[in-house]
Structure formats: C-alpha cells, structure tokens
C-alpha cells in the first residue's frame, strides 16, 4: 500500500503483482474481451473503447481512460452508494510485461481517494480482498479455462480461508503504511465479516 494523487485529491494505492503462465497477448485479451472478462471477473457491458464507459454486473462502473495494447489499461472505478457523487475518487490500472519464459508479469494498481466513503470502515481490504479473489479466478481461467463462481466460492472453506488471510495481509500492509492500529484492527474485522461472514461456510 502506498500513496498517489487523483483528481479528487490524495489517494492510497493497493498494488498486486502476479505472474501468469500465458503470453502477454493472451492475458491482454482475457482482461479486455467482454466474453472472457466475464468468465473470471464479472459480466461487462458498455462502450468498450478509449473514452467509452463500462458497467460490471456487480454495479462497478467507470470510463476507459487509457488503453495501450497489450501493455496498459487504465479505467476509473466507481462502486457503492453515492459513488457517482464522488467523481475521480478511484482508478484501476493494469500493466502487463513479458516474462523471461514466455509468461506474463501482471501488475494491478487500484488508487482510491483517502476521503472515499468505504475506507473508514474497511481500509485497503475493501478492494484488496476482492482483487485477490478475482486474480485467483483469473489464474484458474488461464490455466484450465474454468470459470469461478465468486458467490459460491466465498461460502466454501477454501474461499473463506483465502478471504480471511487476504484481509489480514491487507491489514499488515495498512499498518506498514502508517495506519492507526485501532483503525486497522477494526477494518480487518469488518472486511473479514464482509467477505467471509460467520455461518456462510459449508
């Protein structure tokens, strides 16, 4: 977790890095082709070109700010009650580069304004846990072409354990970035309860 600046002001960033055993062109296609994107993230609709807008099935929406195939994609990212009243508060950028063995180095940076309404309750885990779960789904899709039902996965012991570990790890990152220990502890608890609520396991 680090800091950045958005149109709305100072922001914190969540940074995730993965290596996928697939060529850059294939990974680019998986993150930009609507049919394939819907198999690991969520179904998407909209005007999917530079300057156009998009909306995911879960309500996340925004504009396509930069598109440099097959290396860089940046979008604005709005989600949650009143999100449209907070323009410029959140952006997601994906950077791809070829790895040494024909694989792909994948980096996702999600910058969110410090004043956006979800941070006080959930901290960086608000988006961080969700991205961890989605990038796990991306890895599985690239490996075997299978889709992951996120709602179902979160009810399974494996999914709940991954969510709990992810929430704790984002809490550690928040502390390392100077977060108040009491706020961090409360945010980790709230994030864990959201992604792995008690009684949801099988």
Summary of the model, kept short:
This is Activator of Hsp90 ATPase homologue 1/2-like C-terminal domain-containing protein. InterPro entries: ASHA1/2-like_C, START-like_dom_sf. This protein is an alpha+beta fold.
Write down the domain tally.
Answer: 2
Please give the radius of gyration in angstroms: 17 Å
Order of adjacent strands in the largest pleated sheet: 1-2-8-7-6-5-4-3
What fraction of the residues are assigned to beta strands by DSSP? Answer: 25-35%
CATH topology of the largest domain: Alpha-D-Glucose-1,6-Bisphosphate, Chain A, domain 4
Overall geometry: globular
Which structural category fits the helices and strands? alpha+beta
Question: Tell me about the biggest sheet?
Answer: 8 strands, antiparallel
Count of DSSP helices? 7
Following the backbone from N to C, one meets helices and strands in this order, namely EEHHEEEEEEHHHHH
Domain Activator of Hsp90 ATPase homologue 1/2-like C-terminal: 21-140
InterPro entries: ASHA1/2-like_C (IPR013538), START-like_dom_sf (IPR023393)
Pfam families: AHSA1
Protein name: Activator of Hsp90 ATPase homologue 1/2-like C-terminal domain-containing protein
Protein architecture, described:
Belongs to the AHA1 family. This is Activator of Hsp90 ATPase homologue 1/2-like C-terminal domain-containing protein. InterPro entries: ASHA1/2-like_C, START-like_dom_sf. The structure is a single chain. The chain has 202 residues and is an alpha+beta fold. The protein folds into two domains: 1-117, START domain (Alpha-D-Glucose-1,6-Bisphosphate, Chain A, domain 4), CATH 3.30.530; 118-202, no CATH class. The protein is 39% helix and 28% strand. It has seven helices and eight strands; from the N terminus they run ββααββββββααααα. It has an eight-stranded antiparallel β-sheet with strand order 1-2-8-7-6-5-4-3. Strand 1 and strand 2 form a beta hairpin. The model has no long low-confidence stretch (mean pLDDT 89).
């Amino acid at each position: 977790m680090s800091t950045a600046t958005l149109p709305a002001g100072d922001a914190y960033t969540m940074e995730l890095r993965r290596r996928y055993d697939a060529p850059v062109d294939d990974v680019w296609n998986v993150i930009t082709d609507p049919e394939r994107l819907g198999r690991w993230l969520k179904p998407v609709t909209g005007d999917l070109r530079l300057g156009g807008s998009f909306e995911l099935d879960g309500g996340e929406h925004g504009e396509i700010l930069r598109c440099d195939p097959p290396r860089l994609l940046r979008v604005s990212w709005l989600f949650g009650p009143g999100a449209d009243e907070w323009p410029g508060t959140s952006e997601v950028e994906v950077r791809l580069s070829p790895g040494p063995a024909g694989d792909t180095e994948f980096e996702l940076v999600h910058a969110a304004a410090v004043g956006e309404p979800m941070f006080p309750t959930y901290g960086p885990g608000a988006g961080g846990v969700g991205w961890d779960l989605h990038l796990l789904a991306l890895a599985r899709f690239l490996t075997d072409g299978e889709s992951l039902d996120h709602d179902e996965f979160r009810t399974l012991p494996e999914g709940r354990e991954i969510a709990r570990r992810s929430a704790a790890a984002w809490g550690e990152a928040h502390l390392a970035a100077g977060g108040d220990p009491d706020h961090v502890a409360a945010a980790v608890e709230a994030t864990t309860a959201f992604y792995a609520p008690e009684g949801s396991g099988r």
